[in-house]
Design goal:
479 residues; alpha/beta; Leucine Aminopeptidase, subunit E, domain 1; Aminopeptidase; nine-stranded mixed beta sheet; six-stranded mixed beta sheet; binds ligand BES; binds manganese (II) ion; binds zinc ion
Length: 479
């Protein structure tokens, strides 16, 4: 899908030949003398267009405008959230038709955030996953023109929104792929394909190299699968070599059966999404290559399957992590923290300014925060505040949860330095406390995206979160 930004008032928008024209009307709308304004004014007066976001009025071949379909959509006061609702409703109203070129026109000049929201919402409303269909019926909408009465000043926010969409869709694509189409090796190929882009390099380690590094925790998870593990190292070099990088670590479990501590059968298919953290890292790198900000970023992805086998790691097994700490694996389903802890230790070699890990880590986080906000954990107030604020401005929200040392009590064991699980209480926090043991050398934050990375039910699919949040955070570092 291609996005363009144009200077268009309603008079101009009416002259554009397109398959559908979405007119976004806010409460501050002042109708001009043009045809389209009149139409809007009439619809408002007649009560056919409610001044509430999410309602759309579709007109087929209206007289006057050059578009085949016009959709009048109210955005209320015009906030980013209202624009998202309106654009989604409007795109939904026409996307079943043969709409290839779509114009979305703001009837009144928006702020930056609503403009950004329009781009992201148009992409989201028209996204289709086709990779595993025999007769793919992909997205019909090919071109989206965003029209504002004066486009100067919007270029930067527009370009960022378009890059965010590219990153989000790349993340969705990989997260949505079933585990047999997204093995650790294929995920590594996806990362390698990014290395063709500007400023990106990729290195992939296999079982032998990972063993040499001493990643005993990561290897323990991988040992029950026939698919060999991959440790992916991505590098985006946008600043001087001397500038300390930010490291993103993405959980890349391509399928999580739970291992010997096997999960119940219901909804187990959703554990193909257990590499959504990894997918978000890939998406961020794609967006970085488009925007070329002056920062350095490293992406680390420990990727493997968590399966049952005669060779699987067993409850009670003790393994030695790359850090030297021994871990008693009391529950093989708490595998995310095992692959992440070795990746966190590996991150030390980059002397990072900050490390952020992104993981579909705990069902407990889904219970705590649902699908609205990702869980955020950090002992570093400044880093936490920066991530919260990046989430607010990108509408990819997160919520900080505590890390008091008392939460680590349950991880104590007589048989190793630490156990990989505590009790059921505070499960998202105890998981974070486990990870924190491996982050002494750098400022660190952990995003638990178990509730936000995908949707279940009829709308089942990856969300591409938290690509927008991470990108926003990284771009503020470039300033
Ligand atoms: N990938 C899961 C977390 C998960 C569960 C994400 C449900 C989304 C929905 C993770 O590996 C896991 O299994 N965690 C366990 C930890 C427990 C054994 C301490 C969990 O949350 O049940
Ligand atoms: Mn698990
Ligand atoms: Zn998992």
């Amino acid at each position: 899908m291609n996005f363009e930004l144009e200077t268009l008032d309603l008079n101009g928008a009416a002259k554009v030949k397109c398959d559908a024209l979405i007119v976004l009307i806010s409460t501050s709308f002042k109708p001009g003398k043009d045809n389209l304004s009149m139409l809007v004014a009439q619809a408002l007066k007649a009560g056919d267009l409610e001044s509430k976001s999410g309602k759309a009025l579709v007109l087929y071949r209206p007289t006057g405008p050059a578009c085949t379909r016009a959709v009048l959509a109210h955005v209320g006061e015009g906030s980013a959230n209202e624009v998202i609702k309106a654009v989604k409703a409007a795109v939904l109203a026409v996307k079943a038709g043969n709409v290839k070129k779509l114009v979305i026109c703001f009837a009144t000049l928006p702020q930056e955030a609503p403009l950004r929201a329009a781009v992201i919402a148009a992409a989201e409303a028209s996204y289709v996953f086709t990779t595993t269909k025999s007769k793919p019926e992909g997205r019909v909408i090919q071109r989206v023109v965003i029209g504002v009465s004066n486009s100067s000043g919007f270029k930067l926010v527009f370009d960022r929104a378009v890059a965010a969409v590219a990153g989000i869709e790349f993340a969705k694509e990989w997260a949505n792929r079933p585990a047999n189409h997204a093995t650790p090796a294929r995920l590594a190929d996806a990362a390698r394909s990014l290395a063709k882009l500007a400023n990106i390099k990729c290195e992939v380690l296999g079982p032998k190299q990972v063993e040499k590094l001493g990643m005993g925790a990561f290897m323990a998870v991988a040992q029950g699968s026939e698919e060999p593990l991959r440790f992916i190292v991505l590098r985006y070099d946008g600043a001087l070599k001397s500038a300390a990088p930010t490291v993103l670590v993405g959980k890349g479990i391509t399928f999580d059966s739970g291992g010997i501590s096997i999960k119940p059968a219901a909804d187990m298919d959703e554990m193909k999404f257990d590499m959504s953290g990894a997918a978000s890292v890939l998406g961020v790198f794609l967006a970085l290559a488009q925007l070329k900000p002056a920062i350095n970023v490293i992406g680390l992805i420990p990727s493997c399957e968590n399966l049952l086998d005669g060779r699987s790691v067993k409850p009670g097994d003790v393994v030695t992590s790359m850090s030297g700490q021994t871990i008693e694996i009391l529950n093989t389903d708490a595998e995310g923290r095992l692959v992440l802890c070795d990746a966190l230790t590996y991150a030390e070699r980059f002397k990072p300014r900050a490390v952020v890990d992104i993981a579909t880590l705990t069902g407990a986080c889904v219970i705590a925060l649902g699908g609205v906000r990702s869980g955020l954990f950090s002992a570093d107030d400044e880093l936490a505040a920066a991530l919260v604020s990046a989430g607010e401005s990108s509408l990819d929200l997160c919520w900080r949860l505590p890390l008091d040392d008392d939460y680590a009590e349950g991880l104590k064991t007589s048989f190793a330095d630490v156990a990989n699980v505590a009790g059921r209480a505070g499960g998202a926090i105890t998981a974070a406390k486990f990870l924190q043991r491996f982050t002494e050398k750098f400022p660190w934050a952990h995003l638990d995206i178990a509730g936000t990375a995908w949707k279940s039910g009829t709308a089942k699919g990856a969300t591409g979160r938290p690509v927008a949040l991470l990108l926003e955070y990284l771009l503020t570092l470039a300033k």
